[in-house]
Amino acid sequence: xxxxxxxxxxxxxxxxxxxxxxxxxxxxxxxxxxxxxxxxxxxxxxxxxxxxxxxxxxxxxxxxxxxxxxxxxxxxxxxxxxxxxxxxxxxxxxxxxxxxxxxxxxxxxxxxxxxxxxxxxxxxxxxxxxxxxxxxxxxxxxxxxxxxxxxxxxxxxxxxxxxxxxxxxxxxxxxxxxxxxxxxxxxxxxxxxxxxxxxxxxxxxxxxxxxxxxxxxxxxxxxxxxxxxxxxxxxxxxxxxxxxx
Length: 245
What we know:
By secondary structure, the protein is α+β, with helices and mostly antiparallel strands. 22% of the residues lie in helices and 29% in strands. The chain is built from six helices and twelve strands. α5 packs antiparallel against α6. The termini are far apart.
């Protein structure tokens, strides 16, 4: 039996196991029905070489081929979700608004390089939750330099605005259900029950805030088609280059 890993008491929560459990065998039946041709290569091509793919379950407009989260989009269920009763029940168990919902697969030996996903922490109001369906102890996340394995059938929060990477060193594909949830009172109570410890807000001059971090955020913002995200990317690039007034 897999043993849960928890942060040290009092440590700011860049990742956290939430008090939720799911029927792994049922979720595996749903995820295993999709043919190889139905998995779409991930859009963040700067973070991997091969082996990272998605099946959209909730997408902008419910489009069957749309895998990119979009700010301000009207999210709806895709035709793929209609085929997955177990996954539909998982989504229905969340008493909060869910934007994007995706199955994310990582092939054996595949590596997702260190990157940041801006705007995906509890403080941002959009929480990214992973529910492992197929995994092994050889699938390791690195979050701000700390390695952690997310066990199957549990719900895990990861502050994806932190520098994070994933390596599947196992012999089988890893598949996670990944939800982008909008913060509300139910989620806040769930996090409190799990012992969530917020990070201190960064201070000007913090040595942890460096040009490399800013560049990673800019690169992520540029992946979004949202005009607001693209405008923010231009502003940050101007500041980083010293060309802003």
